[in-house]
């Protein structure tokens, strides 16, 4: 499979939340194709087509679940992002999301957790987009 084929799959991603699982499976299948062809996959791609530094597949799945829970105001995004960090402690965007969730909350100690998460993210590998999230 050519890299342009993966790019086309990303651009054709489903827009309905119900189709996200099918999209995730297509991305994982694409990654498997790349590995089988001997191309090293260094970073995973999220469902929005963005590179996610420091993630493994389990961490990315938990991160996506946390982001979806936040957007839909369902379930427990804090628990999901904690699972993402447990699975992928070097996942930059999981630290960023953890910081954001603690800033949104009403817990007086949330700012301390948010600062620690931002500091942890700042020490990790990140691309320009991820750095902008850290700085925000």
| Domain module tally | 2
Mean pLDDT across every amino acid position: 81
Number of strands: 2
Tell me the distance between the termini.
37 Å
**How many helices in DSSP terms?**
7
Strand content: under 5%
Low-confidence blocks of residues: 30-42
How is the largest sheet built, in terms of strand order?
A: 1-2
What does this structure look like?
There is one protein chain. The protein has 136 residues and is mostly helical. It folds into two domains: 1-41; 53-135. The chain is 64% helix and 3% strand. It has helices at 3-11, 20-36, 57-72, 77-87, 92-104, 110-122, 128-135, and strands spanning 44-45, 51-52. The chain has a two-stranded antiparallel ribbon. The chain is globular and about 50 Å long.
Summarize the structure.
With 136 residues, this protein is mostly helical.
Topology (elements, then pairings):
Blueprint: H1 3-11, H2 20-36, E1 44-45, E2 51-52, H3 57-72, H4 77-87, H5 92-104, H6 110-122, H7 128-135
Question: Could you list some keywords that capture this structure?
Answer:
mainly alpha; 136 residues
């Amino acid at each position: 499979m050519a890299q342009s084929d993966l790019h086309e799959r990303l651009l054709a991603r489903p827009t309905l939340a119900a189709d996200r699982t099918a999209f995730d499976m297509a991305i994982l299948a694409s990654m498997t194709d790349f590995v089988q062809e001997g191309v090293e996959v260094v970073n995973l791609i999220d469902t929005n087509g963005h590179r996610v530094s420091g993630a493994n597949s389990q961490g990315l799945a938990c991160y996506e679940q946390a982001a979806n829970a936040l957007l839909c105001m369902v379930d427990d995004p804090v628990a999901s992002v904690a699972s993402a960090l447990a699975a992928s402690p070097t996942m930059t965007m999981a630290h960023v999301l953890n910081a954001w969730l603690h800033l949104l909350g009403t817990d007086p100690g949330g700012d301390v957790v948010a600062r620690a998460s931002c500091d942890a993210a700042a020490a990790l590998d990140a691309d320009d987009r991820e750095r902008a999230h850290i700085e925000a």
